[in-house]
């Protein structure tokens, strides 16, 4: 049914329940998506030289690129890409070999490089760049290129993070229903 899902070395992406995969995205290889995750038009994700894991209710929005770094003798694990639950990845972001916790908002056009860690409950401003290996502390807004800690998140912003994920779960359910009618 999904032409967007392609094998690499015999491994195809694995989808949880009620996942929405837009027809105009490409997912290759060792990628797993949790229940209710969504992947929007023009996303390119390659789980070829390492794996990609995407948590429950997480949305990967239009034009985002996801990739990983290979395993080498110097770095036997390489850099997989690990994204937690209830994460909102804005349009045209680039995530490469990094780790993102739960209830995170990655702003549009942000770039996150190998080995960086975005802890739980963080907002990363639009257009920010997270250098390799940098760790972003839980509960803060980060902006800039390279990224800097801007301020603690407000209670309203902390409450918005899971709500943002839920908004996309509702939206992808509408898209799934539409496709079933077509
Ligand atoms: C950073 C953000 C959360 C706003 O935070 P805020 O604290 O309300 O910021 P303000 O709008 O009050 O601006 C405060 C300062 O930060 C600057 N600023 C705002 N967004 C910025 C960004 N993404 N990068 C760098 N600086 C930014 C403003 O210009 C302002 O600078 P000044 O004090 O020199 O005038 C918001 O601009 C943003 O980037 N949101 C991401 C939205 C997104 O991409 N969502 C995903 C799509 S679903």
Automatic annotation (TrEMBL):
InterPro entries tied to this protein = Hexapep, LbH_gamma_CA-like, Transf_Hexapept/Carb_Anhydrase, Trimer_LpxA-like_sf
State the source organism's domain of life: Bacteria
Q: What is this protein called?
A: Gamma carbonic anhydrase family protein
Q: Which organism is it from?
A: Shewanella cyperi
């Amino acid at each position: 049914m999904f032409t967007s899902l392609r094998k690499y070395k015999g491994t195809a992406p694995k989808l949880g329940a009620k996942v929405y995969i837009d027809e105009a995205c490409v997912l290759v290889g060792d990628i797993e998506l949790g229940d209710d995750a969504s992947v929007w038009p023009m996303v390119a994700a390659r789980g070829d030289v390492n794996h990609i894991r995407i948590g429950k209710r997480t949305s990967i929005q239009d034009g985002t690129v996801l990739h990983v770094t290979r395993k080498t003798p110097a770095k036997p694990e390489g850099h997989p890409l690990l994204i937690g639950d209830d994460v909102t990845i804005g349009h045209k972001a680039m995530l490469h070999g990094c780790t993102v916790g739960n209830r995170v908002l990655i702003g549009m056009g942000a770039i996150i490089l190998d080995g960086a860690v975005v802890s739980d409950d963080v907002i990363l401003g639009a257009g920010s760049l997270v250098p390799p290996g940098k760790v972003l502390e839980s509960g803060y807004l980060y902006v800039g290129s390279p990224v800097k800690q801007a301020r603690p998140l407000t209670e309203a912003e902390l409450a918005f993070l899971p709500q943002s994920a839920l908004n996309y779960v509702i939206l992808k359910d509408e898209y799934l229903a539409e496709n079933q009618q077509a």
